[in-house]
Design a protein that fits this description.
The chain is built from 34 helices and 15 strands. By secondary structure, the protein is an alpha+beta fold. Among the domains are: 95 residues, Phosphorylase Kinase, domain 1 (2-Layer Sandwich); 180 residues, Transferase(Phosphotransferase), domain 1, CATH 1.10.510; 136 residues, Rossmann fold (3-Layer(aba) Sandwich). It has a six-stranded antiparallel beta sheet, with helices on one face. Strand 1 and strand 2 form a beta hairpin. Helix 13 packs across helix 18. The two termini are 35 Å apart.
Length: 755
């Protein structure tokens, strides 16, 4: 077979051989990429009914797109007139799959069992893959150590989806069928009964037992003896075979392998949750912190101060007072301060203070009001303990505008004192630190930040003008430079300005802020963003994000962007950890970003829950609604998903990014004409507005037009399309990953997966 060409695949080498056939490494001559070919034994597909059933199963399995599942690209068969004597007989089915460098779990444990932390890492990945399959109603039926490949980089891939149902027809009766397959059978399989997703959970438990102990729980030289053991005997306790396995992990294996289906885990998601919890307890590198009500003590939320001034235009000032106190308190180590986004969610709402504490997971709340008349100020504040509503401290400041900085200092220091937080010398200095002493400049700065928080094209431009005015009066106003950098960053991030115009300005002003104040964490975040979205300087971006977090560990803003940076690099577990910390600091933040990380982690159901929450909290969030439909399409619920995306498109006013998303989903759903309509509309609109090339690339990818997809990816690269930074993990272009041109693109972007 080596050197032979079957269809347009040139056979290069044997990868492996088992009961389900021989696997070869081959070169796809048409697309110039390496693939794996699995030739199935003729006796498994000789029966026409079995053959059709298998093809149906394999087609279903080929729809699975998940980073822990080996992708099936094609099903083909050998010609009736083989090219040589050693070629397979005509009409023999073979499957075309992704080809990975690595080895199976069965091979890895030949010498010794795996370390516990590695087992947990692999188990979490397998569970993620199974969860994705089960969510689409697909059962593997033949999970075993030989069907789990650990690719280079430690990524687990589940092999042979779509084959097991065919093999089950003969595995108990066919001469020479593998003992290994029988050893992983669930009791219901062994009895020939109907099976559901819980049979995969059993087999998964058997795999965990084996890679922990180096032995299978049910063993014998004869298949019938193994079956008897599966049905009637209990395996030797893991603790008798290995002392370092935590009892909680042994319990996971035990629960997965209960003979009674009803006593097992009922869904792999339950098993996955236990594995993640165990990973966190053990401090494993795979640990993913789940959102929790446990927060550092003490904790506080500074609610937006009410504007009691006669002039409603003074709202910028009352909001600014709240933000200044929040920013000061975040610099105090050991004090958990809820971010502005979540605290300001209660603006204008007369909500019960205990309910606010519950939603924000804090023990204390600071309320206040501001009355400003000319240069005179009256500021009142109350520090309230959530548990009993008791006022720990309250005060009223009747002062002149000249005293505004002193008032802010007094309030911040009083809070720290009443919450019994010990201040370090550097923290005392940070609380009293201010970027300007010029009151007119400061007032302009507050107006600019008020406009910036509205987050529209017009308001961001207004903010920039106010910051420029503030800087003209205070040339060394570091925070004004940092906020102006943020405004330009947002204009670029929201595609309201061309990237080559927005990001260089953001970088310029962020660098200026750092020159003036090397401890300005906000400026480091923006500098990191310009390195990420525009410079594609992954190392420098990571260093700048970490510097920002070092300077201000309470910055949810820094952690969200750092999580996105990690996601772009394929470090999904680390990304989710950072995102979880960010949402603990900012619990009412729009959950879109958390949903995106969960989506790219393969946790589709959890991701969709976050996108639904986003829509529920703000029904006009078209992008979140689009993602709800996108996940339905990924799950094979095409009509439901497409209907949702069409609603999102209408809600967005025909947003180009959602139009492209609709085109991609139509292509995935097999609606080629509808996908082509989206491409044509994008092409037409590009004559009047800038349309990112990446949009067309992903639609062509879903249509199977690989050459055109890469043509548009090259355009995206040439234009420095910032969408391209997600290319490594974007499921929209997953079908391109095995093409050598994809690796070439990654190399040009200096983007190498780090997990």
């Amino acid at each position: 077979m080596i050197g032979q060409t079957i269809s347009h695949y040139k056979i290069l080498a044997v990868i492996g051989e088992g009961g389900m056939g021989v696997v070869y490494k081959a070169q796809d001559m048409r697309l110039d990429r390496p693939v794996a070919l699995k030739f199935l034994p003729p006796d498994l597909t000789r029966n026409s009914e079995a053959r059709e059933r298998f093809i149906h199963e394999a087609k279903t399995a080929s729809a699975l797109q998940h980073h822990n599942i080996c992708t099936i690209h094609d099903i083909d068969e050998t010609p009736d007139n083989p090219a040589s004597a050693d070629a397979p007989a005509g009409g023999q089915l073979f499957i075309v799959m992704d080809c990975y460098e690595g080895q199976t779990l069965a091979k890895m444990i030949e010498r010794r069992p795996l370390p516990v932390d590695q087992v947990i890492d692999i188990a979490i990945q397998i569970a993620q893959g199974l969860q994705a399959a089960h969510e689409q109603g697909i059962i593997h039926r033949d999970i075993k150590a030989a069907n789990i490949l650990i690719a280079n980089g430690g990524i687990a891939k589940i092999l042979d989806f779509g084959l097991a149902k065919l093999s089950r027809q003969t595995v108990l009766t066919q001469t020479g069928s593998t003992v290994g397959t029988v050893a992983y059978m669930s009791p219901e399989q062994a009895l020939g009964n109907n099976v559901d997703h819980r049979t995969d959970i059993w087999s998964f438990g058997v795999v965990l037992y084996e890679i922990l102990t180096g032995e299978r729980p049910f063993r014998s030289e004869y298949e019938q003896a193994i079956i008897y053991s599966i049905l009637n005997e209990e395996p030797k306790p893991i603790k008798e075979l290995r002392l370092d396995v935590p009892p909680a992990l042994e319990l996971v294996v035990t629960r997965a392998t209960r003979k009674d289906q009803g006593a097992r885990y009922q869904h792999v998601a339950e098993m996955l949750a236990d594995l993640r919890s165990l990973a966190e307890q053990l401090g494993s590198r795979t640990a993913i912190k789940q959102p929790s009500l446990e927060k550092p003590q003490p904790s506080i939320a500074v609610l937006p101060f009410a504007n009691l001034s006669a002039d409603p235009e003074n709202e910028y000032f009352s909001d600014g007072m709240s933000e200044e106190i929040i920013n000061a308190l975040t610099k105090v180590e050991g004090l958990h301060v809820v971010a502005r986004t979540s605290a300001f969610a209660f603006k204008g709402k007369n909500e019960d203070i205990q309910e606010i504490g519950r939603k924000l997971h804090v023990d204390h709340v600071l309320e206040g009001s501001v009355r400003k008349s000319g240069n005179r100020l009256r500021i009142t504040v109350q520090l309230i303990k959530i548990a009993d509503g008791y006022h720990l401290w309250s005060d009223r400041f009747d002062r002149m505008m000249d005293d505004i900085f002193a008032i802010q200092d007094e309030i911040s220091l009083a809070i720290v004192d009443k919450l019994k937080v010990t201040l370090l010398a550097k923290e005392k200095g940070a609380l009293a630190k201010r970027s300007t002493e010029n009151l007119e400049s400061y007032d302009l700065f507050l107006q600019g930040r008020y406009s910036l928080n509205k987050n529209t094209r017009e308001s961001l431009q207004e903010a920039i003008e106010k910051f420029k005015e503030a800087i003209s009066l205070s040339p060394d106003y570091a925070q004004a430079y940092a906020e102006m950098a943020l405004a330009y960053n947002l204009l670029g991030f929201m595609y309201l300005l061309p990237a080559n115009e927005a990001y260089p300005k953001a970088r310029e002003f962020a660098q200026k802020a750092i020159e003036i104040d090397p401890a300005n964490a906000d400026a480091y975040v923006i500098l990191a963003n310009t390195k990420l979205f525009f410079g594609w300087d992954w190392e420098m971006a990571g260093n700048r994000f970490m510097k920002a977090i070092e300077l201000n560990p309470n910055s949810a803003h820094a952690r969200v962007y750092y999580a996105f940076h990690l996601l772009c690099l394929g470090r999904v577990n680390e990304s989710l950890r950072e995102m979880t910390i960010a949402y603990s600091l900012d619990p009412l933040r729009d959950p879109m970003m958390l949903g995106l990380v969960l989506l790219r982690s393969g946790r589709l159901q959890e991701a969709q829950e976050q996108f639904r929450k986003s829509v529920e909290s703000e029904p006009k969030r078209a992008h979140a609604l689009w993602m709800v439909g996108h996940i339905d399409v990924l799950g094979g619920r095409f009509e439901e998903g497409l209907a949702t995306i069409r609603k999102a498109l209408a809600l967005s006013g025909n947003s180009a990014i959602i139009l492209a998303g609709l085109g991609w989903c139509n292509a995935v759903a097999g609606k080629r004409d509808e996908a082509m309509k989206a491409l044509e509309e994008l092409r037409e609109r590009s004559r009047r507005e800038h349309i990112r090339p990446y949009f067309s690339a992903k639609i062509y990818s879903a249509l199977g037009e690989t050459d055109l997809a890469f043509e548009w990816l090259e355009k995206a690269y040439a234009e420095h399309d910032s969408s391209l930074i997600s290319v490594l993990n974007d499921e929209s272009v997953a079908g391109l990953h095995n093409d050598p041109r994809f690796n070439g693109l990654l190399k040009k972007m200096k983007l190498v997966k780090q997990n």
